């Protein structure tokens, strides 16, 4: 079920940023379930987070609605941060 959520997150974030080629969504398995790590260009990080985190919250809500009962955890990271 992770593939549709992955694609939706990538599509939403790519539409917001100035450099959509730098958008990368990785899926990690953690104790708490699946974690989607969204990497963007450092210049675009503010756009993805939005004022007071509203954009990031909206992306999380959409992904959570698609994920269903299990929900979806999303972490936004700039591409300069160590991998």
Strand content: 25-35%
The whole-number mean of residue pLDDT values reads 87
Overall body shape: globular
Structural class: alpha+beta
Briefly summarize what is shown.
The chain is of the alpha+beta class. Helix content is 41%, strand content 25%.
Description:
- The protein has 83 residues and is an alpha+beta fold.
- Helix content is 41%, strand content 25%.
- A hairpin with a 2-residue loop joins strand 1 and strand 2 (33-40).
- It is globular.
- The protein starts with a helix and ends in a 5-residue tail after the last strand.
Lay out the secondary structure.
Blueprint: H1 2-16, E1 24-30, E2 33-40, H2 45-49, H3 54-67, E3 73-78
Parallel strand pairs: 2-3
Antiparallel strand pairs: 1-2
Helix pairs in contact: 1-3
List the keywords.
three-stranded mixed sheet; 3 helices; 3 strands; 41% helix; 25% strand
């Amino acid at each position: 079920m992770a593939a549709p959520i992955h694609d939706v997150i990538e599509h939403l974030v790519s539409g917001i940023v100035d450099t959509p080629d730098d958008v990368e969504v990785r899926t990690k398995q953690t104790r708490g379930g699946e974690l989607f790590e969204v990497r963007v260009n450092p210049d675009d990080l503010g756009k993805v987070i939005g004022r007071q985190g509203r954009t990031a919250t909206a992306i999380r809500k959409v992904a959570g609605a698609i994920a269903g009962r299990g929900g979806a955890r999303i972490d936004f990271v700039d591409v300069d941060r160590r991998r």
